[in-house]
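Data availability excerpt. The first of two example chains:
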Amino acid sequence: MSARKIIIDTDPGQDDAVAILLALASPELEVLGVTAVAGNVPLPLTERNARIVCELAGRPDVPVFAGCDAPMRRKLVTAEHVHGKTGLDGPQLPDPSMPLQEQHGVEFIIETLRDAPSGAVTLCPLGPLTNIATAFMRAPDIIEKVAEIVLMGGAYFEVGNITPSAEFNIYVDPEAAEIVFKSGVPLTVMPLDVTHKALTTRPRVEAFRDLGTEPGRMVAEWTDFFERFDKEKYGSEGAPLHDPCVIAYLLNPGLFSGRKVNVEIETGSNLTLGMSVADWWHVTDRPANAMFMGDLDAEGFFALLTERIARL
């Protein structure tokens, strides 16, 4: 069976970095490219971080592209308070030696989808949806070519992590999220409701460290860094490992359960800007547009993640 072709759209971020490592360690997936977007930190850092992670995985052959440096209509909001000033704070890593591609990330997405057979490429956004929405607006003909979008973003029962009502990725560019959620592309969404169950408990972190490899050590030290914020914020025994849920779903969808529901994105209210309004209980007649995940097998998730990181 041939590998599933994916494009990772990302704003690394320690958890984004772990997701990229998981994808690059998995032969079931062919990463056609990594497109960086402004989000957790500004674009010059996210594209740099993406290249650092590819080199850590021993995959400098994977092309990395810089995409949009700001949301479609709003001023950029970043998350250095979680990820540190570089986005990958924690252990020190050398500057990347692999080149940044000259082509803009949005143009890479458009060109790749136009050149591929319909349904051949899956998009995997791990950050704000600016690059994906911009590509859809510039080239609406590519929308029907996308096999599926599997994204990390939104929340329902967990509500918000950057405002009382909004999850960070959706909040940063709600207009982009609205475009994507209304695009008609098959959507699978990993909201906070799922990712907050993927907690980096001490035994799970030590399992990465005990691999005795550089990628294993880096994953452990990255989680050591960013979990300090989430443990204090949520009072939990570990931090949510958000973005690897996207890649884990591609590898083993049976780890996750959810419902096909309607999800609308709030773009007009100052109070609830960026809220992902999921009709979990089907109380409206709005048609379902997303598989919205609600639970996962956390032990199975971390077993998969540890086994794959060990391959690097």
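And the second chain:
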Amino acid sequence: MNLAIFVSGSGSNARTIIDRFQAHPEYGITVVLLVSNKATAGALMIAAERDVPSLVVKRDAFYQSEELLADLKFFDVDFIALAGFLWLIPPYLIKAFPNRMLNIHPALLPAYGGKGMYGPNVHRAVKANGETESGITIHYVNEAYDEGDYVFQAAVRLDAEDTPEQIAERVLRLEHGNYWRVLRRLAASSRE
């Protein structure tokens, strides 16, 4: 599986995924490209340090043309993992990668999903509502934010005194421990 990772931020999930698959080529997954919608994203440095090619996409080109498809074809990408990518994926990209694009969301969907529900916003909402657990949802990408079919969910218990930042740390540990495993499982099943 040739994997592209789409990011918008610091790239801690991208780092985990790249490091895991570079250390274990027997898993059959190669991260061939990192795509960012921000030229200042920390994930770009992570990719450069690991010799993973990267590109920055501009909003107009992303939504009003299909030139990104040529880049993905050039790198022979056959699967996409969104790892903190904050833009809604346009229909042409979903059509080109049907059931071959995953997203990871820092909550147990369907709660705390949708436009504007990402990162700290999710964890503040979870805290404000007094939830006793949170977690992650890994799902296929469709035309709406956080509404694709679920592939995997994992939960973590919360304490009443947990801050949004502590909730974020617990959820991030789940992300780092599970996203690469789900990708590995999908890659293995695609070869069967």
